[in-house]
Design goal:
mainly alpha; Growth Hormone, Chain: A; 2 domains; 78% helix
């Protein structure tokens, strides 16, 4: 994930549209499609654009590994925790209205990110961006699905997915170019004109609508879910620097676990839960969400740490690192449409087993090449193999989630699976960050005998500072590759486990 592909079940949310869409003129539908493409793409590509710029952000603001990770995690945490509330808000208060509010909030937070004087302000603004995205992403999907009738919805979904894939592919290259030739701050100001166009299109013709029987808003559940996930993620991130014996780390982990337990209790008793626990009584629904959690945990972790290994370990520029990732979204965008026929022919069990196994091979290939090897031999093959594995998996994953529940719960089931993928990204950055920092430190100290004489900058793995020349620099590059290799191997193990879960929980095709 991290912005180079859409989350699973985005299309599922669209297909779970109301049976009677809003009556409107063809021109209004065109403006709605354009507005939703612009709005959703703003939020979806934000992760990949910022990820490529993270080394420059770390260098300019002189922050440590934990703060660097939280520039990304603050956004993903709030987005993952509130995206279900955002969808319910759109149904209750009006889909166009919530979409416009979400775009305004996201854009205002982007401006604050661009002028942030320090890491604390940047992380706080990124959290506000996540809140805006939690409104605009589900509202854009709901607005599009409520505007197009069933006979024209498939074509609209195809256009929305195609233009969105193009934006996702261009995002990392554009972010890298701006980081290299202007500043990392420019990537946040770039959101302003596109957001203005999305708002103008939405207010100028997109029809507003809301549900006749809107769901309740589970604010208590959202608060507890955010606190639980945030406490665990912060504790794991801080443990890399403070150690697990630190009172702050132990307090955060304990508080996060308590809040998570309280969240489960509340969701079991509240009248309108944002996460209906009854859905998990379905073995297939449980299995597909476990597959999503493990696979997107692996994908998000590898794609988060890869730019650091490229920029600092292989001397890529930010633009070159963004361009290097281009094959992944291109393959995803071009080949995803054909994956549905494979699932229709063989059922969901086979592709949901084969796809993660192919992805696991891609992760393993990341761990094979030596630092300094050519792009064509060391980076392109694993990216292509990983992309094909995800192509085989994503479409059957969406259809399986939607078919695992009754028709009244298709929308919430799609939203839950979408949120699981975002939560997986938060956990991946925290857990695999602990692994990345630990392996880097051990490998570096093992390679350099006089460890007490190491320069301070060399001890920081998630840094944008160039490595020194000579033996110290080579030791740093080797340590970076060892750390990334460990992350890739864990990713391969998670993908393989997700394949086993799919084989065990999915029904065989009869």
């Amino acid at each position: 994930m991290i912005g180079v592909s859409r989350c699973p079940c985005d299309v599922g949310v669209l297909q779970a549209a109301p049976a009677a869409p809003v009556e409107c003129a063809p021109a209004a539908r065109t403006r709605t499609l354009a507005a939703t493409v612009l709005g959703s793409s703003l939020a979806l590509i934000d992760g990949s654009v910022v990820n490529v710029a993270l080394p420059a952000i770390q260098r300019d603001l002189a922050v440590g590994a934990a703060a660097t990770q939280w520039v990304m995690n603050a956004y993903l945490l709030v987005l993952g925790a509130l995206v279900l509330i955002g969808g319910a808000s759109a149904d209750r208060f009006g889909r166009r209205r919530v979409f416009v509010v979400g775009v305004l909030a996201f854009t205002g937070a982007s401006v604050v990110c661009g002028v942030a004087p320090g890491p604390s302000a940047l992380v706080a603004a990124r959290a506000l961006q996540g809140a805006g995205a939690a409104l605009l992403i589900p509202a854009s999907l709901a607005l599009l699905s409520a505007t197009f009738p069933a006979g024209k919805r498939a074509r609209a979904i195809g256009a929305w997915a195609g233009y969105g894939a193009l934006a996702i592919a261009v995002g990392p290259m554009l972010g890298g170019f701006l980081t290299d030739h202007a500043s990392w701050r420019a990537i946040f100001f770039l959101n302003v004109p596109f957001a203005a166009a999305a708002i103008w299109l939405a207010l100028g013709g997109a029809p507003d609508s809301h549900s006749d029987h809107p769901p309740g808003l589970d604010w208590l559940g959202a608060t507890l879910g955010t606190a639980g996930l945030g406490g665990v993620a912060w504790g794991l991130t801080a443990a890399a620097e403070l150690g697990f014996r630190s009172p702050d780390v132990l307090g955060a982990l304990l508080g996060g676990l308590v809040a998570t337990a309280a969240f489960v209790l509340v969701e079991a008793r509240v009248r309108s839960p944002m996460l209906p626990l009854a859905l998990f009584r379905s073995r297939v629904f449980m299995g597909t969400n476990l597959v999503t959690l493990l696979l997107y945990f692996a994908l998000s972790g590898v794609l988060f740490f890869l730019p650091f290994e490229l920029i600092r370990g292989r001397d890529y520029s930010a633009a070159a690192a963004g361009t290097a990732l281009l094959p992944f979204p291109v393959v995803m965008g071009l080949a995803s449409g054909r994956a549905g026929t494979f699932a229709d022919r063989f059922g969901s069990r086979l592709p949901l087993t084969v796809g993660p196994l192919v992805a696991a091979l891609g992760f393993l290939l990341f761990a094979v090449p030596l630092p300094g090897a050519s792009y064509w031999g060391s980076l392109l093959p694993p990216l292509l193999v990983l992309a094909f594995g995800m192509v085989i998996t994503v479409t059957p994953l969406t259809t399986t989630v939607m078919s695992a529940v009754d028709s009244d719960n298709v929308g919430i089931a799609s939203g839950v699976n979408n949120a699981v993928a975002r939560v997986a990204a938060v956990l991946a950055i925290a857990v695999l960050g602990l692994l990345f920092v630990g392996v880097y430190d051990c490998a570096l100290r093992a390679a350099v005998s006089a460890s007490g004489m190491l320069p301070a900058g060399l001890l920081e793995p998630l840094s944008g500072a160039p490595l020194p020349a000579g033996p110290l620099g080579e030791a740093g590059r080797a340590a970076l590759f060892a750390a990334f290799r460990a992350v890739a191997l864990v990713g391969a193990a998670c993908a393989a486990c997700s394949a086993l879960i799919a084989w065990w929980t999915m029904r065989p095709r009869r």
